Amino acid sequence: MKKSKQDDKPAPSVLVVDDESDFHRDMLEAFQGEYDFAERAFNEDRMWVHLASGKKFDLILLDLKLDNVSIETGMKLIQPIGERYPDVPVIVVTNENDLGIIDRATQLGASDFLYKKKYNHDQWDKKFREAIENKVLRQKVEDLEAEVERMHEEEDDEKYRFIGHSPQVTEIKKTLRAVADMADKIVLLTGETGTGKEVAARFLHKNSPRSKKPFVAVNLSTIPSSMLAAELFGAKKGSYTDSKEDRIGYFRQADGGVLLLDEIGDINAEIQIQLLRFLEVRIVRPLGETKDIPVDLQIIVATHRKLGEEVQKGSFRPDLYQRLHALTIELPPLRERREDILPILEHYFRLELPNAPLMDLLEHNVLDRLISYNWPGNIRELRNAVDHMMLRRRILGKTRITWECLPGDVRSDSSVLLPVSIKQANEPTAEIELSSSRSRKEQQAYLELNKIETALRVYFGSKGITAEKLGYDNEQNLRGFVKTRFAKYPHLMGRFPTIAEAYSKNTWWKEPLQE
Q1: How many angstroms from the chain centroid is the CA of residue 514?
Q2: Which of 16, 300, 387, 397 is surrounded by the fewest CB atoms within 10 Å?
Q3: Residues 6 or more apart from 106 whose CB is under 8 A from it?
Q4: How far, in Å, CA of 244 to CA of 333, rounded?
Q5: What are the Cα distances from residue 420, in Å, to 423, 430, 457, 458, 498?
Q6: CATH class of 344-414
Q7: The domain 162-332: what is its CATH number?
């Protein structure tokens, strides 16, 4: 490969597509050493052979009159080159000094143009370099945009991750994966406000054959009834008051992918009829339009209302209800899957403080209350509580989240359900201060046992989960650690009632470990 005179980098490689050999020779002589003009194609077939050869070209000079008769022979190649080789800019060269021709070539994708009868070395060299550099810059921008999009997708994945290992959530995930393969089936998600219906819908989309296509979520209760048809199905410019441009509705925005219609129980009778029509024929007709537009997507509807009761009241069409409720998935309230509270807390706190272990961040009484609180607003309330606690922590200048950081509703609620182990742990013996007279090793043992005590309370006595969360690999290693510490500091045994309760025997720590 030739080297550029200007630097030590390889000279940019230029493919000349021209049936006139004189032009190719002129380029070789005029730009010797500055560009690599070694390749020439005298017709369309030879051009595709050169491009498919595996050699990297930085620029194509394309003569529009390849047959010396019509500019169409070159013009028809601009768009296909751009589609197959988008990284290679095309500069058209012509003897025709016609701005209409140049404008058309530019619209088809040409980077620039050169008029053969007005050759100027410096001007042509400038255009060559601008075309190449602009293409490189555009590629960098596209790469950056792709990286930003990937990061946004990762952020969305974190924000909308379906957290939970309770039997209810495990079964729901299994069902959603199965339904995701039924790419044209309607899914109805029910449950109290804040139970994570959009999270479940995104989980379905991620596991669907449509995962590479759009996911669009619409909260129907937030759109004025007068605008709902235009927002959903689209509208032509001027089809309603203040309509100043064409509107692409949510159905078409989600074409190929998944559309979530949240709060479906809040739509009026007119929209119910239009939705029923779409579900029957899978076409939309924007307001002011005379033609139907086919749309291919999976519909997920969600509501906190009991649609069967709405049908009985006469506020929801029975025929639409029959179409919607064939595949119904109910999301349980958080109070009914209490074992998922801590993993969800860990997830949200990790989004705010990635390197802060939850056990070190929250004081014990705070953690107990968060686990035992009934969360009437479900996951949404829990997420808001995390934001509140983080803000209060900063305002109060605390290193840990204390009781004062809790939202008022969570602090004052008297209906919390405390497991026995948590009640025991709230007794004064569980909150002792480390004596300065203790050795450093004893203090370290106390602190580690305190973490184990807290984890066992949080995970409702599960030794396996506690071992996994605290990095002991397995329960046997956890038991071994506790045994050796209690053997060395037997007076600490009474300070950790949950550990003693987890192993049930008062003398378990004196027994030899089984290999």
Answers
A1: 47
A2: 397
A3: 113
A4: 44
A5: 5, 14, 9, 12, 9
A6: mainly alpha
A7: 3.40.50.300
Per-residue pLDDT of the chain (515 residues; tens, 9 = 90+): 455 555 567 889 999 998 888 888 888 888 988 898 888 888 888 899 988 888 889 999 998 888 777 888 889 999 999 888 988 999 998 887 778 888 888 889 898 888 888 888 888 999 899 988 887 777 767 666 666 655 555 455 567 789 888 889 999 999 999 998 887 889 999 999 999 999 999 999 999 999 999 999 999 999 988 889 889 988 887 666 666 678 888 999 999 999 999 999 999 999 999 999 999 989 988 888 888 889 999 999 999 999 999 999 999 999 999 999 989 999 999 999 888 888 899 889 988 888 888 878 898 888 888 988 999 999 999 999 999 999 999 999 999 999 999 999 998 865 554 443 333 434 333 333 444 456 778 878 887 888 888 778 767 677 888 888 888 888 888 988 888 888 888 888 777 778 877 776 655 555 665 54
**Among the listed residues 275, 262, 268, the one whose alpha carbon sits nearest the alpha carbon of residue 302:** 262
Q: For residues 497 and 430, is the Cβ–Cβ distance under 8 A? A: yes
Domain coordinates of the chain in residue numbers?
13-138, 162-332, 344-414, 418-515
Separation CA 44–CA 60 (nearest Å) = 13
Positive or negative, the CA dihedral 54, 60, 64, 68 is negative
Rounded-to-integer distance, Cα 264 and Cα 321, Å: 10
Residue of 384, 385, 377 lying closest to 405 (CA atoms) = 385
Overall CATH class of domain 13-138: alpha beta
- Three-state secondary-structure class, residue 317: coil
pTM greater than 0.85:
no
d(CA 434, CA 152): 45
Pair 431, 424: CB distance under 8 Å? no
- Topology match between the domains 13-138 and 162-332: yes
Block residue for tokens 């690999």: 473
**CA distances (Å), origin 150, targets 147, 155, 203:** 5, 9, 17
| Token couple for 201 | 């819908």
CA-to-CA dists, residue 502 to 270, 459, 463, 474, 511, angstroms = 60, 11, 7, 15, 15
Is residue 406 within 8 Å of residue 413, measured between CB atoms?
no
For residue 114, give the H/E element and its range: strand 112-115
Residues 6+ apart with CB under 8 A from 141: none
How distant is the alpha carbon of residue 267 from its chain centre? 28
Alpha helices in 160-236 (DSSP H): 167-180, 197-206, 225-233
